[in-house]
Amino acid sequence: MIDFNEEHHVYTETATGIKIPSVTTIISSGLSLDYSNIDPWYADFGTAVHKAVELFVLGTLDESTLMEEIKPYLLGFKKFLAETEFEVTETEQKLFHKELFVAGTADLFGLFGGKYSVVDIKSGVKQKWHGVQTAAYACMKSEEDEMGRYCLYLNKKGGYKLEQYSDPRDLTFFRNLVGVHHGKARY
């Protein structure tokens, strides 16, 4: 079992209290991504978009409470659901892979025409490492390679772009990043 501190974005093992690195920490560290100079507003905005989508999926969103800036992103999500007929089965799923000793939160799991898939929601621009992130979440949910992997890029114009990822090297690369991350901690 794992615990998650949302304020500090820290996962810990429930029984021991040991910190567990997140998927994004592993990727950021391994690729030397530095987001320290990014205005915190953008991180908060992305979190707000995710929360709006989560509450909408759960059927508990009061849309009258949304900031005007968030509404187009939610509209894009609604269009995505209507146009693709994606059936959401889980939202904001906390995951832990015991063997890799890594944790993360997948935005959406569901079905595209009967095929189980992970969909990661993005309110920013496409990055090369997004496929690696979806591979990590898919692996953490199921060891089978048959899960569809997607990123859903929502935009301020009320639209969306759905990007499918299928490169089998994404998971291999993520596993290598995990090994390096844990190796750095040991040596």
Structural class call reads: alpha+beta
**Order of H and E elements:** EEEHHHEEEHEEH
Biggest β-sheet strands, sense, barrel:
5 strands, mixed
- Poorly predicted runs are none
Total of helices: 5
Task: Give the overall shape, derived from the CA principal axes.
Answer: globular
Separation, N- and C-terminal Cα atoms: 27 Å
Number of β-strand runs: 8
Strand content: 25-35%
Identify the strand order in the major beta sheet: 4-5-6-7-8
The whole-number mean of residue pLDDT values reads: 94
Measured as a percent range, the helix fraction is 25-40%
Radius of gyration: 17 Å
Overview of the molecule:
The chain has 187 residues and is an alpha+beta fold. It has five helices and eight strands, in the order βββαααβββαββα. It has a five-stranded mixed beta sheet, with helices on both faces. Strands 1-2-3 form a three-stranded antiparallel beta sheet, with no helix packed on it. Helix 1 crosses helix 5 and helix 4 packs across helix 5. The chain is globular. The model has no long low-confidence stretch (mean pLDDT 94).
Task: Describe this protein with a few key phrases.
187 residues, globular, three-stranded antiparallel beta sheet, 38% helix, five-stranded mixed beta sheet, alpha+beta, 5 helices
